[in-house]
Amino acid sequence: MKRLILLTAMFKILAAQVTTIDSGSPTDSNFTGGAAFGFAGPVIGTTDLTMRSGNSVYDIPCDNDWPYIISFEFFEPVVTGVGQRVFNVRVNNQIVLDHLDVFKEAGGKNKAIHRSVIVLGADEHLVIQFEAITRTPIISSISFKQLFQTGAK
Q1: Is the per-residue pLDDT at 16 higher than 90?
Q2: Residue 116 DSSP symbol
Q3: What H or E segment, with its residue span, contains residue 113?
Q4: Among candidates 113, 116, 29, which has minimal Cα distance to 73?
Q5: What is the value of pTM for the model shown?
Q6: What is d(CA 52, CA 135) in angstroms, rounded to the nearest whole number?
Q7: Percent of the chain scored above 90 by pLDDT?
């Protein structure tokens, strides 16, 4: 019986729908602030060549007190050195990526990096903020999914 319960729980985790916001594209949604940009490429590690740049906020409706996994994709298209663009990412006012330097973590420009965090929905929202420390923040895409389908908690 324990195996059946475990397999059922695993299926419900895997079956949750993934939603992706292609930042800076014509389908970009749920944001305020920042500006959209597209690049000719190539960018190593992604085919997504759009981004939102600037202090911006995404406000995504969600279920309260449910765990969500949020995956971010970044690439640095402009700066040429470590420390030239550094920013924080907050979810529901908690810093989840602190002093992110995409150039440093990717080992150069035009190379994608991916970071994922697990958070709880609060007040029926996932509020994702990109805050400048040095130069403007950038984001290429945001994917999120509820870790459990409704009713599986």
Answers
A1: no
A2: E
A3: strand 113-120
A4: 113
A5: 0.86
A6: 13
A7: 77
